Amino acid sequence: MLERYGHGGDLWTAEEAFGQPKEAFLDFSSNMNPLGPPKAVKTILSEGWRDIVKYPDPAVRELRSKLSAKYSIPVESILVGNGAAELIDLTARVLKPKVTGLARPSFSEYEEAVHKSGGEIYNIPLHPEYQFELQQQDMEAAYASVDLFFLGHPNNPTGKLIPGPVLEGLVQSGHRCVLDEAFMEFVPNEQDHSLLQQAANNPHLFVIRSMTKFYSIPGIRLGFMVAHPDWIRQIEQLQVQWSVNYLAQRIGSSVLDDVDYENISWQWLKEEKTWLIQQLGQLGLDVVSSEVNFLLFSFPLSMGITVKQAQQHMGQQGILIRDASLFEGLDERYCRVAIRLREDNERLIAGLHNMLSDFKMNRG
Question: Is the entire prediction scored with pTM above 0.90?
Fold first, then answer.
């Protein structure tokens, strides 16, 4: 199984499974910006090594100041972490929820963090007939049973934003809620959907962001969260000292200034998402519309193909796809792929076409 450690992007396991070097794979299982890191990252890595003899700023002052200015949020409401994963874990440890409402399917680390803190899970179904969009009635049904909601906005693996009325109802309900906005930067009009600014003053709202997805720096590990200052201080007390290293702080501060990178990324995604959805549909696959840089699709029952069979066949072609059946709430027909550059996307479509042809021939 390629998702041995619960994520896509595991090239080491792919190398073991398919007998090809890591560098030979075209990875659609990991949802990074295919444009690669902004130019400033190369400069910092090539020149900043001289300063790793110094301790990083324990208060991450420069990056927090940059985030404060970019999003119009008080500095004291911002905590920077070693990726969104650290902040998800820390938040669950501080809040210690008894019962947490999770949309199904959603990112597995929410459940892992809740279980580590001793809590239980309440499942909120996302229905395929509604294109996996969170429904108001399902949220309202959960209000009496949970003391915390942990929700992706946009959600992974569906790529769906939470509808505005559902978010408004949640905030007005007074329930504590952690929103994972790890992919929000891929939404061009993110200010119309994000609750970052509300979280800065609302003691019931916590918003977590990843900087690794949009800026394509997963190896650096960098994220931040916004919450009421009282909660930020409590969460910070559990954080390991110098959690965010010097290079991560420098890189985070620099990429926030690259407006051209943002605009080019949004233009790329607009064009490629439209093209890839069309191409997948022409292959006869059932594609879920997405707000971000990845697509969830399923193999129709008539094809008689499971995602594990598809993952094996595609892996042998040097193409890695995500087994989405591992997300609770999805069956063995579901697959998730990142949206990459046109040349890569064309190779994905060709690989899927080859696979479908082979299965059809074998069924004869």
Answer: yes
